[in-house]
Structures are given as C-alpha cells and as structure tokens.
Design a protein that fits this description.
The complex is a heterodimer of chains A (about 950) and B (about 475).
Chain A (H helix, E strand, L loop, with lengths): L1 H16 L6 E7 L10 E4 L4 E4 L5 E4 L8 E5 L6 E4 L10 E5 L18 H7 L14 H8 L16 E5 L2 E2 L23 E3 L15 E5 L9 E9 L5 E8 L7 E12 L9 E14 L3 E9 L2 E4 L4 E2 H7 L8 E4 L2 E4 L2 E5 L2 E11 L2 E21 L20 H13 L1 H4 L3 H9 L2 E6 H4 L1 E6 L3 E22 L4 E22 L6 E2 L3 H6 L17 E2 L4 E23 L2 E18 L12 E2 L3 E15 L4 E12 L3 H4 L16 E13 L3 E19 L3 H10 L8 H5 L9 E21 L5 E14 L4 E6 L6 E6 L13 E10 L4 E11 L23 H7 L7 E14 L3 E10 L8 E6 L17 E5 L4 E10 L1
Chain B lengths: L1 H20 L24 H6 L8 E2 L5 E8 L9 E6 L2 E6 L13 E6 L4 E5 L2 E5 L1 E5 L2 E5 L3 H7 E6 L7 E3 L12 E9 L17 E7 L4 E6 L14 E11 L2 E6 L5 E5 L10 E2 L2 H6 L6 E2 L4 E7 L12 E5 L4 E6 L10 E5 L4 E5 L2 E7 L4 E5 L7 E2 L2 H6 L1 H4 L3 E10 L8 E6 L4 E6 L15 E9 L3 E4 L6 E2 L1
Parallel strand pairs in B: 4-7, 11-12, 14-16, 18-20, 22-25, 27-28, 30-32
Antiparallel strand pairs in B: 1-6, 2-3, 2-5, 3-4, 5-10, 6-7, 8-9, 12-13, 12-15, 13-14, 15-16, 15-17, 19-24, 20-21, 20-23, 21-22, 23-26, 24-25, 28-29, 28-31, 29-30, 31-32, 31-33
The chains are: A mainly beta (about 950), B mainly beta (about 475).
Chain lengths: ~950, ~475
C-alpha cells in the first residue's frame, strides 16, 4: 500500500528534478525477456534518494552525488537487486539493471483453487468468489488469498461485498448481492494480470474503497504485454482441462493496440462426483491513443459457463457413501450421471473507457459499461410427490426407529449407489403414470388432459440488465498534496423468474403452489401463481411460478486528499451514496393478490462514509500506520424484501447499518525482508439479515405464539407433531465485531531461498440480540414479531477465524522454483439456526436438561492442516519463444476430512420430538483432498 | 522460422484438441418408458400368506422364502389410504404397510408387483391382515412399522402395468365375507341411506375419518369409510342409487368399503323405490285388484292420488301408516319411516313396484319410501259412506280401509269404561269391533252411555274392525 502512495509522489518528485545536474540514469530490464521494466523503485542506499523507472524502463536520479554508492532496485514480482555504482557519476554511463522474476511466469494467482462455495450458493445465491483474484502484491494477501482459500478463508471474516472490484474504472460488484462474481471473468487469466489492490482501509486512487479493500483490474490492450501465448492446463478440481490462447499487439503505430483472448475450460466430471464444467471465455480489448493526452478503450468479454453443481449433505450420507464428497444432486439416467442443479451463466460485459491526461498533474478516467445476459440454475421441483432428493432427511436410515432397521437400511444404502442418488428413471416413471385432466385450464379456456408432471426440472433464472459508469479525477495540487475524487452509478434490473426446463416425460405442469393448495380449501384461486392465467398448464420454455424484477439504482460521489510531508503521510476522504430499490411484480399471486403485481414503493436510503489515515516512515524500510473508517450502508435488496418471489413486503423499519473500523500496523520493506503486522477492529451495527430459517424451528416458535403455522398433518408429510413453516425470516439489529491481527513475513536470508510465514488470528462475534420477524408464505399475511434471538457472543460463521502458513521456496538459477507450504486453519464455526436461540424455541426446557446444549451451543469444525507443493520452470528458445511449466499440488497429504462449511440442518432428521438429540443434525461440506493443477504455456513475443 | 512454425503448429494442435475433446455431454435421453419391469415367480398365494397370521393382533415374522405377486388394487393417490397399498391375486388380497407416503408414484393401481416376504411380518389391525416391515417397541407396546425404503428396494420387485386393470368382483352386501378383504369389489344397485346422502365423505376440518352407510333395495347395509385426508373427503355422498366400488376392509367384525376416489361411487339413478315423475295415475280400486292374494309387486310406473283419511295426530294408528281414499276405494300405505301427512291432505303416491301385501288381513302398500309421496293440497275431506253395520259386514271386501259413518250406534265394553281397547258397536243391524289404541289421544274418553253417530275407518286386524281417527268421530 505504501508503494501506491509512493509512486505518484515519486513521479512528482521526478518531474521536478528532471533537469537537475549530477544525476544517475539507467534502464531496468527483465532478465528473462530483456524487455524494459517500468515501475521499478531505485533507491540510492543511505541517501533516501529514489526514482521509479518509466514505461521504457528508464530512470533518472537527480543530484545523486553518488560515489561508490549502491543502488537498491526493487519491483513487485521481481527479486530485488543491489547494483554497485563504481564511479562518481557526474558524467554517468547509463546503468543497466536486470531483474529476475520471483516466480516464474505463472503467479500463484494464476492457479485457481477450488473456491466454489456451494453452501453459499445454496443460501445466498451463487457468490462464487475466488479470493485469488484479490491476491495482490501485499505479502499477506498473497498468502491468504492462495494457501488459505482451500479453507475458504475470508480476510478479517468480512462479507464479500466489503471487497470491491473495478474493471477499467467501473464498479464490478453485483449491486444485488454486493459480492463480485469472479466466475464472470474466469479463464481470462492472461489479460487480467494488470491489477492494483489496496489492503483494508488503505486509500486508493481509483475509488473510495470499501473497508475490505479494492482491486482495480486494467484490461486495456496497451498495457498487455505484447505476445502470443497458448497454454494448456490439466487439473482435477472444478475442471479437468483448460486451454487459453491470447494475442496482444502492444501499442502499435497510429496509437492502436489490440488484445484478444479465448479460453475453454471443461470437465466431464470434476473433483466432486456428478459435477461437470463447461466454460468458454472470450475477450477483446481495443485501444486508441489520440496524441499523448487522450485514449479510448473498448473492452468486451464474456464467459458462458455451464456447470453441474454439488451440495452439502449429512455426515450420515458421507459415511454411507464412503466419501466426504458425496454429492446428492446427481443420478444415473440411462447409465450416465445427470446433475439436477445445472447453472448457466453468460452475462457479457462491454466497457468503454476514456483516459484524459490534460497535464502531468491531472488524470481523468471515465468509463461506462453495460452488462446483461442469462443466469440461472436448474432445480428439481415436485407437486404431490415424494421429495426427489436422495438425501432428504426422511430417507436417512437414522430417521427410522428400530436399531435393526437402521442397520439394515444403512447397509442397503451403502451397497446401492442408485438409491443414494437421484432416481431419474423413477421420476420419469411417476410422471408417465400421472394422467390427469385439468378443467378450466389456462385461464378457463378449456380442459387439458395428459400426463401431468409430478416432477420437473425448472430453471430458476436471475437475468440481469446493468448499466453504469464512473469518472475518477486524480489531481496533483502541490507536490505534497493530491486530490482523488469521483462519481459512479449503477442501474441494475434483476429479472427473476422460472422457466420450465424439463417435464421429465410428462406433457404439462400446472402452475400451482403447494402452499396455495392448502389455502385452496378456503380460497380456490390461492394455489395459482398468476391470477391472470388460472390453472396455467406449463410446457417446456414457459415462464411460471414467479416473475418479478429487482430494480436497484446506486450512485456514489467521493473525494479524497492525500498529503505527504517528509516522514508523514496523511489521507482523508469522504463519500456520499444514494441507494434506491423497488420491486416490480409481473404476476398476481393467488395467495397475495393485493401486493404482488406492479411496482412497489421505492425505497431510498442515503449513505455516507468517511475515512482517514496516517503513515509514519521511520526510514525507507520501516513504516507505522493507522487508518480509520466510519460510514453507513444500505441493506441489499435480498435483505430488504421478504419473499420477493411472491409479494412486495419490506422488512419493517428498514434502515442503513453502520460500519466502524480502525486498523494500525507496522510495515517492513527491506531488500531481503518484508513484513507486515496489522491489527484491526471493525464493528457492524444495526444490520438487517434475511436468514434462511429452519421450517421446523420457525414452526415451533409460531406454535408458541399461537399463530397458525401450516400443520401439514398426518397425511402429507408423515407423523409430524410440529407445525411447519414456509416463508421468510429476517433479523433486525444484528451487531457484529470483527477484531484480529494479520501478520506476514517474507525473508530471503540466503540467495535463492525464500521463507515466508503468515498468520491471521481473529475473533468475529455477534454482539447484539436481534429481533426476529417472520412472514408466512401461506395464511397469515402480516409480519410476525418472533421475539429476541439470543445470539450475543456467537461466532460469525463462514470463515476460519484462525489461519497460518509457513513456507519455504527455492529459486533456481535456471529459471525454476519449488516451494513447500504448510497451512493451518481453525475456528470454522458452524452457521447456526438463529431461531433455535430464542426463548420460544426452548420453551418448556431447562438449562439443566442435556438437550439444552444440543439446541443452543454453536459447533466448531476441527482444525485442519494441509501441505502444498509448487514448482515451475521456464525455458527460452531462441530469443522469442518461451515455454513455461507450472505444477501445483494442494493438500499432498490428501486430508479428506477438512470441513470448510457447516450449518445446523434446516431440514432436521425426521424426528417428532425437539428433545430428541437426533432431531439436531448438521449439513457439511468438505475441502478436496489431494488436488493438482499443472500448466504448460508457449509464448512468442 | 521453423520455431515459428512449430509454435503455430502447437497452437493449432491445442485448438484442434478443444474441438475433439472439449465437448461436455450435458443433454440426456429420456429413459425407456415404464423402466425395465421386473418379474418373479410367486410361490405363495396371498391367501396362503394371510393364513400364516394366526395370532389375532400379534405379529409373525415370515421365515420362509415366500414370494407373492399380484396387482395393486388400491393406492394412496386420493389420500384415502395412507402409506398403504392393497395387493390382490386370484386367491385374495392383502394390505401392505409402508414407512413412506406418496406411494402411488411408483406403485399405482394396476401395477403388478412381487414381494419377497422373508423377514417381513404379518399382523392385523382389528382383523384386517397386513404385511408390514418390522415392529418397534416403545414402553412395552409393540407397534408396526411399514416397509422402509430400503426394504422396498430389496424386497419389492416392480413389474409391468396391467394392460387392463383388474376389474372389481361384483358382489352384494349379503355376499361379503373375509375372503374378499383387501380386494377390489363392486356393489350394484346400492344407495346411501337417506340420512347419509348429501353428506361429506369425511370431516375435512378435523380430518377425522367418517363412516357412511350404504344399503341396497332390500336394506342390506355396508359401511363406506373415508379418511379426512382423502382428496374427496369434502365431496358429498350421492343421493341416488347406483354402483360403488372400492377395496374391502374390516374393523372387528364390521366390513368397510374404501373408495379409491370419488369416481368409485356412481349413484345417479332413481333410488330404491323412488319416483320418476312420469308415472301413470290409477284408481285405488285398480291397485287393490292387482293384489293376487299373496305378496304382489304393484304395477310398475303407477301412482295413486287420494285424500288422507287417517289422522296421525290422533295417534290411533302406527306412525308409518296412512289411509288414503279416492272416489273408487281406499288403501293403507305403510311407509318405511314416519310420514308427515295429515288428515285431509291430498297426496300422490308412487306405488309402482311396491309390495302389495296383507298385514293381519289388511291390504297395504308396504315399505313405501316417504319421498314417493307428494303433497298436492291440504284441507280436503272425504264424505264418509253412511251405512249400517250389516252393510259394512256385507261389503267389507270392497269397502276395506274406507271411511264409514254409522248412525245410532251403541258402544259396549266387556271391561273398562273408556274407548281404549276393543269395543263392540251395535246399531241394531249387527255388531262390529272398534279398536282404539291406548296411545290414542282420545283413548281415555268415557264410553258414551247413549247411542251415537260414529265416523271411522273400516279396517282389518285378523277380522273386521273400526278405527276412530280422533275424538270428534263420536257425535251424539
């Protein structure tokens, strides 16, 4: 981060002293490619005089007054070099510095790890966030973003939305969920190498970055290394094969530059059984420079991706299947594995960027973008049939009463893979057997008869249309003072609906909702999803179930001042934001006829933020710094609207949450030693959280407050004494506190050896007792106050709270390296069923009862270790051709018992007694065992 | 140059490789219709299997390698059965209990299945034999557990679908016996009893099961039992007569019929003895002359019309009885239930097909459903025929059940001083018995000591007798 502050300052310095006498000059080049290296820092040791190499690798140090001095040359990604200067350089010869890359060609960031967060996908939507793309030049982030991603480590335990991503200046965080969907540019590694990141509360020039930090990806063709590169990679992770082909022209005469990349990644079956992967990536970027002051860039890219998913499951099923990678989402169809949850995403992006450099002091970047396309995931749905999922709680052997039958059922399931997976043939068969006649079908236009589907595969679409832009000004006011500021906006429309994907042999599906069928006793039209077309019969390709738009309008203006004075650097910034959202219903739901159709009221929530920081340079190598932030943010659409699929119902008293954060630390930047230690303390106050609540738990609470949860009764769902709930639950007044220490050190005490160590020790806990609000999908339509949730001091789930790595690396003279890392993680706390932690749930039980702890205690996953090995080598053939080989093996010890995500089960094992410990089950997800990634690239430049 | 060629050749090779191997198969055929039907050869009939259950209410584990096979004749699609199927072969049927619901998807009516019965158990629920998967004992109470999913997968072989589902055996309520339990049967020409028509099959609010009573025209009854969870539980029982089909169950010694669905009861024809509205009116004398001397069926599609001469309010006759008279004659109508018709009502009664019989010598149209009688008007009257006792005795056969008036009649009793009981009427031309029931409103009236004028119905109870209608029938 210091460097990000330093470079502009140095550039300024440079500009001012260009004409001075007694200077040293030289060129920095890449030892391997012999190409000039910009952005290298050249320090005259002992004098504090510094320079930075320009785009041609040239540098000048004015007034060097150096006799027998030493230049220390450092650059990110390269091994530092010390260059002795023999003579008094009053009439200097250019000094040529050659630098070798620290890691050869492929950065760790080029080695994607399995970060597909399936549990996340289940509960919060497909936030496939790859930490690796956030990996930056910061040594801590390099380690955390890579070695710990297998543990699903999140920096400081923060939500994904707190890390911002900008591509060519435009915001790339999803306005709906807040996170960045890195899958949208997977497979484009070759052209996403130019990145700038900030850590924590550090200031950025390109944005008022959020408390997690921000990453700027520059995809302009003119900054892509001129080359043609083709690579093939083999892996056993999400995909088995990857091909990439990239061609960059570099800046050509006439001011043009073109960069293009295509990639294809695929696997008939990934690491997890039944998963497949098929993704094509395309990218084109065209630059045109107009003189020295104006430049235009158009970047278009897209990554159509189709993928068969996996899901978490019960340990009982893992044990029966004999593998912790049991995946309940697939089954055999005609002898081949068919996955029921297939996601498809293709949301191409076009970005038009304009750069204007009116003077050396002023830099303006403006960009507009448009994005849109299809996104969806298929799921099995059913009406009046058995649940088709093979690990449905009531199919588990443990749901039986007698130990003998449990043993027999376990044994049978162990020996019968077909029974552990989806029985596609059975679903077809049921559909073929269900001939029926629908009178007054399709809005009363006639009678439809034929095979009425009991089971279907539906495609739950969430297409988006997005338009946005931003403008950023970087202005040097005085050599010490600079101003950054900007404005950005995002117009987002998320189109949410279901499309019939596969009728599984039936002729039609009727657009009835099973909750509505219950209400149907008193209101026959309640079962219809769309009152405009009663008894709608649905064929392949038809839209049904729900259909609504999420409309989000966001804009933000920010300004930031940075000041440096000798040993001190200061910055201060502020932002204001406008957030507007509303729902547009396109179907009039039979259960909610009065508030499902049309535009909802618009919610407007202004936000603000302010941050500042101070850095003290003890000398050129030791820095102390402290930063602080205070601001508010608007809740996301999904946390604001309860059950938007069926109705316009907003969380009561919706308000902005507050974030307060401070951090402080120490930085060491010596040629052979780099270190960072940072402490942070962040509070999130008054958050609103739409939780995925257990139907059973809410049912019990509703029963206690005597509000009719739907009693499915004896016939339709087995012997249930408990009422069951379907609807939405939201927590209000959630406070959290994330505090901890991050530390990393990289040492090169002996040539060719690099030792690194890093740790993150945090404590992320809830600090309040929020209020539970419930809204029912059937019956009672008002919002029900469910009471207080006692979750104070519970741990925030979803990330290890502790992680550590030690690694050693050898860098050979002949452009090869090998490294070995030992990683450790601990403190993955289970996501817990909030509703259980309420007085109504535990009503009638006492803290002395053994079941008390089972109900309310939060569980923790065991600590885990992995050993990772990496190696690589590159060869140069003639002058223009290069071959690079990289191999990474994660988890060499093949530890298959690493829990990366776990939660209280939302579908309890089939028990009718809340005092029965067997009622409380968990659903788990495990990190892959030994997995590898090997790539070979050939390159011509 | 050669390097350059090599470079581009390598790239071309990579791209080619994509073309060849990068296709990920994600589209799927439909599995063959009906799956692959399995088959086993049964070595035991269902009747033989059921015979192994000997301890009433107890449990027997099947130890032999018994295989039964049959066709599913009852499933849980309508919700009338829950976690239960009925399986039938040529020898009989049996209920099979399962541990999971929504069985009809894989085990619909008409599918043939085979069951390896070894290790399964037999029990009965109040007399209805069931094949179950296992038992569980809680607090000393043994209860049955249906076949688990695992047992279904290992014990049950799904066969083909019958081209024509098994037809029901047509029986009458009288025929029903234990051999028909858990089999598909059909009763023709039956109806719900009057009180159970137009009622819901079960209680959809409390979800309680209910019994409705079925009868045939000869009053043989059978219960129809329906679950509150059946999708037709809120449906109304039909009011007419017709056929009904379902599987037979039993509770203790009471047989119960379970409908597959609402279509199992098609009862839209005329109820036993009910009217069509198109009957031809005949004289009462013609009706009387249709009587052959023994029980006779009244001519079909006939009705009579007349004026009520009996007074049900006087309570001097059975509440099911009615005397009706037209210009030709009179007759007794014996209803199956209490009737609402009053003295002087003009009533039309459909008599076609009804039994004409004598009750202790009195000709009556027997067992007439009340809904066969229609009130035309009220306040009419019949002028009684004034006659001497001698004339009554002479013309009795023609005048039976008609209203007569005797002038100057003396009423005498051997014992007692009131009208109640048998009294002798004498007008000087002869004598005749007059009988008054003790329940009659006027039975306590003292005998008049002087000659009186009597209006009465000329009736018969193993001999001629007069019947008063009310106290006003005696005038001084």
């Amino acid at each position: 981060m210091i460097q990000k502050l330093l470079i502009p300052a140095l550039l300024l310095l440079l500009g001012q002293t260009m004409s001075a006498q007694g200077s040293l000059r030289g060129t920095v080049t890449d030892a391997e490619t012999t190409r000039p290296l910009p952005d290298a820092a050249i320090i005259v040791v002992g004098t504090g005089k510094v320079a930075v190499s320009d785009n041609n690798g040239n540098f000048v140090i004015a007034d060097a007054n150096c006799s027998r001095c030493t230049l220390s040359v450092t650059r990110d990604g390269y091994m530092p070099v010390s260059v002795p200067v023999a003579d008094d350089a009053m009439v200097p010869k250019p000094i040529n510095v050659t630098m070798k890359r620290t890691t050869i060609e492929e950065k760790p960031s080029d080695i994607p790890t399995v970060t597909l967060d399936e549990a996340e996908a289940e509960t919060e939507g497909a936030a496939e966030v790859a930490n690796v793309l956030h990996a930056s030049r910061d040594i801590f982030q390099n380690i955390s973003g890579f070695g710990w991603s297998q543990f699903r480590f999140r920096e400081r335990g923060y939500d994904f939305g707190l890390f911002e991503t900008y591509i060519n200046g435009v915001p790339f965080n999803d306005p709906e969920s807040g996170g960045t969907f890195f899958g949208e540019f997977g497979g484009l590694n070759d052209v996403l190498r130019n990145r700038t990141s900030t850590v924590g509360l550090d200031p950025a020039e390109f944005a008022f970055s959020d408390v997690g930090g921000a990453t700027f990806i520059d995809t302009r063709a003119s900054v892509q290394r001129k080359q043609i590169r083709a690579s093939y990679a083999s892996s056993n992770r999400i995909y088995r094969n990857r091909l990439m082909l990239t061609a960059n022209t570099g800046l050509m005469p006439g001011g043009w530059a073109v960069s293009a990349s295509i990639g294809h990644r695929w696997a008939q079956e990934g690491y997890v059984p039944g998963t497949f992967f098929q993704s094509t990536s395309y990218f084109v970027s065209v630059d045109k420079k107009f003189g020295g002051k104006h430049a235009l860039n158009l970047t278009v890219f897209g990554v159509p991706t189709k993928r068969g998913r996996s899901a978490d499951s019960f340990q009982e099923m893992f044990d029966i299947a004999g593998t912790n990678y049991y995946n309940p989402l697939w089954g055999y169809q005609n002898g081949e594995k068919r996955n029921s949850q297939v996601s498809y995403n293709h949301q191409p992006v076009g970005i038009l960027r304009y750069d204007w450099v009116p003077s050396t002091r002023t830099n303006v970047t403006a960009a507009v973008y448009a994005q849109g396309g299809k996104s969806g995931v298929t799921r099995l749905n059913f009406l009046n049939g058995r649940n088709p999922l093979p690990d449905f709680n009531r199919y588990l052997p443990s749901s039986l009463e007698s130990p003998e039958q449990i043993a027999l059922a376990t044994e049978e399931l162990r020996n019968n893979e077909y029974a552990r997976q989806i029985d596609w043939a059975g679903l077809y068969e049921v559909n073929r057997n269900s001939f029926s006649e629908i009178t007054n079908a399709d809005g009363g236009t006639g009678t439809v008869s034929g095979k009425q589907a009991t089971y279907i595969v539906e495609n739950q679409r969430s297409d988006s249309r997005e338009l946005g832009g931003n403008i950023v000004l970087n202005q040097t006011i005085t050599p010490r003072l600079s101003l950054n500021g900007g404005a950005e906006f995002q117009y987002y429309t998320g189109r949410n609906f279901k499309v019939m994907d596969d009728l599984l042999g039936a002729d039609y599906w009727v657009d009835w909702d099973f909750l509505g069928l219950f209400d149907g006793l008193t209101n026959p039209s309640a079962r219809n999803s769309d009152l405009a077309v009663l008894n709608n019969t649905i064929r392949k390709g038809d839209v049904f179930g729900y259909n609504y738009d999420e409309n989000i309008r966001k804009s933000k203006e920010w300004v930031q001042l940075q000041y440096s004075s000798g040993r001190w650097q200061f910055f201060a910034g502020a932002e204001v934001g406008q957030n507007q959202m509303w729902r547009t219903g396109k179907m009039q739901n039979g259960r909610f006829p009065t508030n499902s159709l049309g535009d909802s009221k618009k919610i407007s929530l202004p936000t603000y933020g302010a941050k500042g920081g101070i850095t003290w340079k003890a000398n050129g190598r030791n820095y102390l710094y402290a930063n602080g932030y205070y601001g508010t943010r608007a809740p996301t659409f999904r946390n604001s609207y309860l059950s938007p699929r069926t109705r316009d119902l907003v969380v009561p008293n919706l308000k902005v949450s507050t974030v307060q954060s401070v951090e402080g630390g120490y930085l060491l930047r010596a040629p052979n030693y780099k270190a960072r230690v940072t402490g942070y303390f962040t509070k999130f106050l008054d958050e609103t959280e739409n939780i995925f609540a257990s139907a059973w738990s809410v049912g019990r609470v509703l029963d206690e407050i005597d509000l009719g949860a739907i009693d499915l009764g004896d016939n339709s769902s087995g012997i249930l004494d408990q009422p069951v709930f379907f609807g939405a639950a939201v927590l209000q007044g959630v406070d959290r506190q994330h505090a901890g220490i991050e530390a990393a050190i990289e040492a090169k005490p002996i040539p060719s050896w690099v030792f690194t160590a890093a740790t993150s020790i945090g404590k992320y806990i809830y600090t309040s007792r929020p209020e539970l609000f419930i809204s029912l999908d059937g019956g009672n339509s008002s919002i029900i106050d469910g009471g207080t949730i006692y979750q104070k001091n519970y741990y925030v789930p979803r990330s290890p709270q502790k992680a550590a790595t030690v690694s050693v690396k050898y860098e050979g003279k002949k452009f090869w390296f090998a490294s070995l890392s030992l990683n450790y993680s601990d403190g993955i706390w289970y996501d817990f069923d909030r509703v259980r932690r309420s007085s109504r749930y535990v009503s009638g039980l006492t803290p002395e009862a053994p079941i008390w702890g089972t109900i309310i205690d939060q569980q923790k996953a065991p600590s885990a270790y992995t050993l990772d090995l990496f190696g690589g080598k590159s060869w140069r053939i003639r002058t223009k051709y290069f071959v690079n080989l990289n191999i990474g093996v994660n988890n060499i010890l093949n530890n298959q018992n690493i829990i990366t995500s776990a939660r209280d089960s939302y579908r309890n094992a089939f028990r009718d007694d809340v005092t029965d410990p067997r009622f409380y089950t968990n659903e788990l997800l495990y990190a892959p065992g030994l997995n590898y990634f090997a790539s070979i690239a050939i390159r011509m430049q | 140059m050669s390097h350059k060629n090599l470079f581009f050749s390598a790239i071309a090779a990579l791209l080619l490789a994509v073309g060849f191997v990068a296709c990920v198969k994600t589209e799927f055929d439909e599995p063959p219709a009906g799956g692959e039907p399995g088959s086993l050869t049964p070595n035991t009939t269902i009747a033989q299997l059921k015979a192994l259950h000997i301890s009433s209410g107890g449990f027997e584990t099947i130890t032999g390698d018994l295989i039964i096979g049959g066709e599913i004749v009852m499933d849980d699609r309508s919700g009338n059965f829950y976690k239960t199927l009925s399986l039938q072969d040529a020898s009989g049927g049996i209920d099979i209990k399962f541990n999971s619901s929504t069985l009809y998807g894989q085990f619909p009516i008409g599918r043939k299945i085979f069951i390896r019965c070894k290790d399964l158990q037999l029990t009965d629920y109040n007399g209805l034999t069931q094949l179950i998967g296992s038992t569980v004992t809680e607090a000393g109470v043994v209860s049955s557990v249906g076949l688990t999913d695992a047992q279904v997968r290992t014990k049950v072989v799904k066969g083909e679908y019958a081209a024509t589902p098994l037809a029901p055996k047509i029986v009458t309520a009288n025929d029903i016996d234990n051999s028909m339990l858990s089999t598909f049967i059909r009763l023709e020409d039956v109806q719900f009893i009057k009180a159970d028509t137009g009622q819901t099959y079960a209680d959809v609010v409390t979800k309680f099961s209910l019994n409705r009573t079925l009868e045939d025209c000869s009053k043989q009854q059978l219960l129809v039992r329906t679950s509150g969870y059946a999708n037709f539980a809120s449906g109304k029982t039909p009011k007419g007569k017709g056929h009904i089909e379902g599987v037979l169950g039993v509770f203790g010694t009471t047989y119960q019929l379970y409908l597959r669905d609402e279509k199992g009861a098609i009862m839209d024809s005329v109820r036993c003895g009910a009217t069509t509205g198109n009957e031809t009116q005949i004289n009462i004398s013609d009706l009387r002359s249709a009587y052959t001397g023994s029980n006779t069926s009244a001519p079909a599609n006939r009705k009579i019309k007349g004026i009520v001469t009996s007074d049900r309010l006087g309570k001097n006759l059975n509440f099911k009885n009615l005397y009706i008279q037209d210009g030709t004659a009179a007759i007794v109508i014996r209803f199956d239930l209490e009737h609402p018709f009053n003295l002087g009502d003009e009533v039309e009664i459909v008599v076609g097909g009804q039994e004409l019989s004598e009750f202790n010598g009195l000709l009556q149209v027997n067992n007439v459903s009340v809904d066969r009688a229609k009130l035309i008007s009220t306040g009419k009257s019949v002028t009684p025929r004034t006659a001497t006792v001698a004339e009554l005795n002479t013309n009795f056969a023609a005048w039976e059940s008609s209203l007569v008036k005797i002038v100057g009649a003396t009423i005498t009793a051997t014992t007692g001083t009131t009208l109640s009981g048998s009294r002798t009427i004498n007008d000087g031309t002869g004598s005749i018995v007059m009988f008054t029931q003790s329940a009659a409103t006027f039975s306590g009236t003292p005998l008049p000591g002087v000659p009186v004028t009597i209006t009465a119905i000329l009736s018969d109870f193993n001999g001629k007798q007069l019947i008063l209608r009310n106290a006003a029938d005696i005038q001084q």
